[in-house]
Amino acid sequence: MIKAKPVYLKHEVSPRDRIMGFVFLLLGLFVLLVFNRHFSADTVTTFAMTPGGITRGMMSDWLIQTNRTLWICGILLFLIGAYQFVFGFGRRSNLILILVSLIFVFAFTVYVAANKMLNLAGLLASALSMAVPIILGGFCGILCERAGVVNIAIEGMMLMGAMLGSVVGSTTKNIWLGLAAAMLGGGILALVHAWLSIKYKINQIVSGTVINIFSTGMTSYISSMYLQNFPNLNKTPRFPSVAIPGLADIPFIGPIIFDNSLFVYGMFLLLILLQFGLFKTRWGLRLRAVGEHPKAADTLGINVFKTRYMAVILGGLLAGFAGAYFSLGSVGRFDEGMTSGKGFIGLAAMIFGNWIPFRTMLAGILFGFADSLSSSVSILGSSIPGQFINMLPYLVTIVVLAGVVGSSSGPAASGTPYEKE
Amino acid sequence: MTPVLELKEITKQFPGVLANDHIDLKLEKGEILALLGENGAGKSTLMNILYGLYQPDGGTIFINGQQINVHSSIDAIKAGIGMVHQHFMLIPVFTVTDNVMLGEESLILGDILDRKTAAARIMEISKQFNLNVDPNAMVGDLPVGVQQRVEIIKLLYRDANILIFDEPTAVLTPQEADELFKIMRSLTDKGKSIIFITHKLREVLEYSDRIMVIRRGRVIGETTPDKADQEKLAEMMVGRAVNLNQEKNKAKKGEVVLQVQDLVVADSTKKITVHGISFTLHSGEILGIAGVQGNGQTELEEAVTGMREFESGEIQISGKSIRKIKPREFVEAGGAHVPEDRQRDGLILSFPVEDNLMLCTYYKPPFSKNGILDRREIRKNAENLISAFDVRTPSPLTDVGTLSGGNQQKVIVARELSRDNRLIVASQPTRGLDVGSIEYIHGQLLKKRDEGCGILLISSELDEIMELSDRILVMYKGEAIVTVDTEAVSKSEIGLYMAGISQQSVSGSETVAEKSSTGE
């Protein structure tokens, strides 16, 4: 069979390519003119390669010539931007976008830590840890959308999970019960979402928004009425870090990956399960079929409604698990709005990762990195106002989504309720 | 011998309609039974009941003499019933293997897909029935004809013995349709039994063993191809005599109304779909654009009527060159447009019939005076058109979206053809309509032609093109593969052109070159 190649308009650089190219050019100029303004040739940036307080898997510090590195980064960005503006990278745009982000972020850290020492390993370790809720949120989104249900209520489910996890963990002093409560909380909200959007075919965005608002209000109310007045209700034990024997001793990588809490290991385990499950098992095949073409699945005897309920509720359990990360994994108590939009960023990671678990994890790590960078930069102290630094993770999300959305396409039936005739 | 399938007294009531009224049906082993009827006659309802998608209000189903209950498609599949739906039930982003085994997966270690075994089984079926399908291909990359064969494999993979085909040729070229009927015959030779639903008379006569006609939910009669002819079947279908072959006078060609030169058009994804087409349309003639759906006809239609900007080339309407024409300018230049997607581009479904009947010229007298609508004139116009074009609507104030497809199309035709036009662009004007409405719309188009309009008729129905056109241009992958006089070609030749086989390779065809049309 002859398959004709589609003919596209030649020399067509889309406005989106132009804008991306222009932004790259600006970034390059920024590195050259702003970052590299006042460094002499012998300025040195020092990166520590072992997270603080760790005694295994040590590695010596990394010294970088600030001036020269910034020049190289700036020129590289400038060239990539110029090429993108004039010719466009076409289908490879997303890859280039990632590359540009990496270069820019690297240049930024080199600039910020000039004449100082920045703990790169610590930065990466906290990036991974901060990425966990984002990635888990993304996984929740993947489960739901692959089955054809848009779930923007991940944020609300996470918040509810965080609150319940803290309360149950505090009262029982049992972290496992706390975790179970957190997951249950997410699961129940997911059941509501599934019920509204599958059975009653309510617009899924509306249903998701309602759950988010409910969850924000409910957790704030409980927090200000009870948790703040009875501190014993909000003082939960936390999941400790567990070093994996052997692996934790690998220099640089060991302390970053193999000396973490349950949440990081759980995230990796879920990654493997989800990636394998979606694409290699009957469960995944049917789930994806329901999200792509529910009617086709139905005519082959697959129960569309049941599959969707299952996927959304599983997603809710995942979101609850992600919520527990905040209270049980990180600070040991619940604060109002402590998920700070991570559920939404998780959705961005899902889109950026093209609804594929592995790529979603990479995207999540990028966002997590932006997060941890903003906190370590404010600790280092720089001339940039703290508010701008705190904007960084969200800025990265916007840039990535602006660059990526439009070129990736999700499951065909995502967001459309299935109507049996 | 007991029939493989027997339906007794099947009845299904929908709100307001009795879709199936005590229908009896018998299917013998190894036969092809054609279920013939107009749209809305109840054929699909009956088959959906058999396949478990609808529950009947009454009646029983027997397989090999055994009564069975079909509550869902799983029951139907278990009973050996399979269905190829009109709109394929395939997932474009899955491979053939994944599509075929979905719901009936081969597994190892509990829940892990065994794609290798499934693919081998598909290869085996493909060889046995000569279907020629690659199990590893992505379904979305396959041509429609092959996708349909994937659907057939899906049924055979489940050991279906009774195969139902719902309007199987609606999306195929004539050659692909012939191929399909060969496959159907080879299936019945191997002991399968087939029911195929259609409203195309020719197919029924050529390929079926037995014909059952349904009208308004009732079995009207049964016959065999050797005892029936098209006129008789059409009469059974519609309930009155139907004029199948429109009387056509010789075309009286006049001046050029539409000239298209080297036109290049891209679709919304920037893919070029029309690669430099040229043709000329005179007043008083019908130029038919034939071709399988998706070969650039839609973009050509949109470029000519001002709905889409084109990349290069030239379009002249009545000698006036246009570069960026707006739909309103097209209308004011004497153009009429019967769009392909009538519900999206032709009507505002939530507006009443009378408003839809004046949509193109609402801003001009008599409908509008000083920017204010004159409802009395609008009503008068609507009443005239409704009676002149035989639109069956409860009242001019009924929302057009509640009318049947045929009547919606009549509203568009009434609005477009009632103006004083010089050029009519009609795309798929009778798609999905029943024989009676088709007859009516064809008659109207021919009347306009004889009044001196130039008509560009875009259709993927080859019968329609052959019947109405004076000249035929065949589009394939965005190019005009040939332009010929209708008298000089046979249907099968056009079919070959539609499949992309160029002029030189068609043996024995008269070389009526493209020059004859463009070089005048």
UniProtKB/TrEMBL annotation, chain A:
UniProt subcellular location: Cell membrane
One term of GO molecular function: transmembrane transporter activity
Membrane topology of the entry: Multi-pass membrane protein
Main location: membrane
GO cellular component terms attached to this protein's record: plasma membrane
Transmembrane segments: 21-39, 69-88, 95-114, 120-142, 149-169, 175-198, 205-227, 262-279, 309-328, 348-370, 391-413
Family annotation (InterPro entries): ABC_BtuC-like (IPR037294), ABC_transp_permease (IPR001851)
CDD domains xref list: TM_PBP1_transp_TpRbsC_like
Sorted UniProt keywords: Cell membrane, Membrane, Transmembrane, Transmembrane helix
PANTHER family given in the database record: GUANOSINE ABC TRANSPORTER PERMEASE PROTEIN NUPQ, SUGAR ABC TRANSPORTER INTEGRAL MEMBRANE PROTEIN-RELATED
Protein name: ABC-type uncharacterized transport system, permease component
Origin species: Flexilinea flocculi
UniProtKB/TrEMBL annotation, chain B:
GO molecular function: ATP binding; ATP hydrolysis activity
Domain ABC transporter as annotated: residue spans: 5-241, 258-502
InterPro entries to which the protein is assigned, alphabetical: AAA+_ATPase, ABC_carbohydrate_import_ATPase, ABC_transporter-like_ATP-bd, ABC_transporter-like_CS, P-loop_NTPase
Compartments, as annotated in UniProt: Cell membrane
Membrane topology (UniProt): Peripheral membrane protein
Pfam families documented for this protein: ABC_tran
SUPFAM superfamilies, per the entry: P-loop containing nucleoside triphosphate hydrolases
GO cellular component terms, A-Z: plasma membrane
Keywords assigned: ATP-binding, Cell membrane, Membrane, Nucleotide-binding, Repeat, Translocase, Transport
Chief subcellular location: membrane
Name of the molecule in the record: Nucleoside ABC transporter ATP-binding protein
Organism: Flexilinea flocculi
